[in-house]
């Protein structure tokens, strides 16, 4: 067992976290029934055995309504704002997810390069990752949930990483910067944007 609960299984890096570790990271109340987790999902249909399902608030519905489906699909632990079996109860699931991401980021000792801007982020991120030979999230996965998942699966032996930061509301860049803690940031083109009310 390595720092943070990582295991090396048959030559492949896998980070397994105990419910107690996750609870300490997010500051929540752990209810009985949960087990170790090896992945993060925020859509119940993507839940698999050994996953942590983050029941996040959305613009039209709340993830708490899909907790039974996630558990039925094998999720080992639920991050939610209500009590329940195999649940890590927190006041604000979104803020708890950010705290989890920050804790996972602290487990990575290498430098992180972040790319932001109104356009060209994904192309720039891909070019930098390929040119530097560093891991990066696939496609335009540039919001908090996929970034948390990226740091969860990031091998601490990697020489560095490249991430993309995408925002569509005020305050989101501050959240992503606190999560990614980049050593260097690249800003592509900036253009006029329409801000939506604050909230995930």
CATH topology tier name of the largest domain: Udp-n-acetylmuramoylalanyl-d-glutamate--2,6- Diaminopimelate Ligase, Chain: A, domain 1
Average of pLDDT: 90
- The coarse silhouette is globular
Beta content = 15-25%
Notes on the protein architecture:
With 200 residues, this protein is α/β, with parallel strands linked by helices. It folds into two domains: 3-102, MurE/MurF, N-terminal domain (Udp-n-acetylmuramoylalanyl-d-glutamate--2,6- Diaminopimelate Ligase, Chain: A, domain 1), CATH 3.40.1390; 109-187, no CATH class. The chain contains six helices and ten strands. The strands form three sheets. The protein has a five-stranded mixed β-sheet with strand order 3-7-6-5-4. A three-stranded parallel β-sheet has the order 9-8-10, with helices on one face. Strand 5 (51-54), helix 2 and strand 6 form a beta-alpha-beta unit. Helix 3 (93-106) packs parallel to helix 6 (172-180). The chain is globular. The N and C termini lie far apart (35 Å).
